[in-house]
Predict the structure.
Amino acid sequence: MLDAKNLNVSYGRIQVIRDFSFHVGSEAVGLFGPNGAGKTTLINSVIGLVKPSSGSVTFQGQSLLPFETHRIVRMGIAVVPQDGELFPIMTVLENLKIGAAYIKEARERIPERLEFVFKIFPILKERVYQFAGTLSGGQQRMLAVARALMSIPRLLILDEPSVGLQPSLVSELFEKLSIIKTEGVSILLSEQNVRQGLKVIDRGYVIENGTLAIESNADDLMHNEHVKKSYLGL
Ligand SMILES: Nc1ncnc2c1ncn2[C@@H]1O[C@H](COP(=O)(O)OP(=O)(O)O)[C@@H](O)[C@H]1O
Ligand SMILES: [Mg+2]
């Protein structure tokens, strides 16, 4: 599905990603690493916000590098950026509809799609006419994920969705991600919260200083000495 190979990315003269390769199939994949490791840069390279100096990014066999973000979204990739980017003085329903607005198939299937996201996030159905800005932090994060799902993505990319949420809300949000996975949506999850992230993902990559530190399945990551020491506090 998504295949990134030998990516190198620089900001000006500073190289922040070195020869990094990763792929996402029909599964949930983690991109774990500390602040500044390069997680957002990799995501932005996939969705056309950053141009790698070398390497390739393909989605279902087609190169994404020539395309702008809106076109990449139309190919079936939805992103929940770190800051959520909701419209605070629009209602929950309006925010959700915007998620479908730029894709013809999604526009034509809005009622069915709303039903789908309300099934996963019943709280949003209860608050459908409330302004997004008046939701709690946890609910706003759920709305950001639900809005991304409105575009009928095959791949959902989330950039550190746990940031700023209290632990119980992180658990709740990540349980939703597990449900989304069972609905046939592939997931690429960037996280510093490796402990919670490991509950959702099938496989993961650890990125440190822009290079690959570890690539493994969730079970092996959980028992990896470096992961335990650096990310799980064990
Ligand atoms: N727009 C930018 N211009 C210059 N340097 C940047 C820019 N964005 C990120 N960086 C630097 O690139 C490195 C990787 O950042 P980032 O991809 O945001 O990491 P992460 O998402 O893992 O925290 C960091 O050293 C960061 O300071
Ligand atoms: Mg980041």
